[in-house]
What does this fold into?
Amino acid sequence: MAYGNALTALADPTRRRIFERLRKGPRPVGKLAAGLPVSRPAVSQHLKVLKEARLVHDEREGARHVYSIDPKGLGQLRAWLDQFWDSALDAFRAEVEKTAGKENSK
Amino acid sequence: MAYGNALTALADPTRRRIFERLRKGPRPVGKLAAGLPVSRPAVSQHLKVLKEARLVHDEREGARHVYSIDPKGLGQLRAWLDQFWDSALDAFRAEVEKTAGKENSK
DNA sequence: GCTTACCGTAAGTCAACACTTACGTTAGGT
DNA sequence: ACCTAACGTAAGTGTTGACTTACGGTAAGC
It folds into this structure.
């Protein structure tokens, strides 16, 4: 149930903005916090949550802590989501056939 | 930004349990609430959130309200996630090459 | 028509959590 | 050695939201 942490992590809008910024490449905390409407410590706390969800991982470069996207949590989340995707497609097909049946019976 | 609602909806554990039950097929509210550690009105409120996120849709059968998985929200969420999946793979490849380079230079 | 399932909604409560400011730590520059 | 930059963490606060009980509405059975 590791995808649970990933979902709760990505549920927060600020955390999503941080995560989306990392999509363009690795960034230190200061760069990530710049432009965001919250303080830098808030960004650190968000990064901690993202890290525990295996969505990001950090790497120290001297005084800087450079964060980047971690494929692990992303992969687990995608795998969980694909479960539903398949059954949703099946349900969709069934729905179409049922509706088509109604249309034909008119 | 429709995926935002889907993420906040799936962030809640109880809502995930409801959603996962719907994976096995359409269910009325009573069946979904049975076995869950929360009251039936709570399940109704959760279903409302899932519905607004386009993750489920309901259909009235007399007094019953039968809920089933809606592919719309699921598709939007998957599309958003795939954005990161691609860049995460690129980053992963770059990381592997960088690490391999270090290994060779030893 | 009356009762009984089956639901959704309103109102209120309590805990989680997203913020803030203040502080401690580490690394680099002069 | 001192200062500064770049962080993480601790502690406290306000608000969101996940629950409860109570109530109103609709459809089916007798």
Summary: The interface with chain B takes residues 4, 7-8, 10-11, 13, 16, 19, 23, 25-26, 68-71, 74-75, 77-78, 81-85, 87-89, 91-92 of chain A (CB under 8 Å). Chain A has one domain: 2-104.
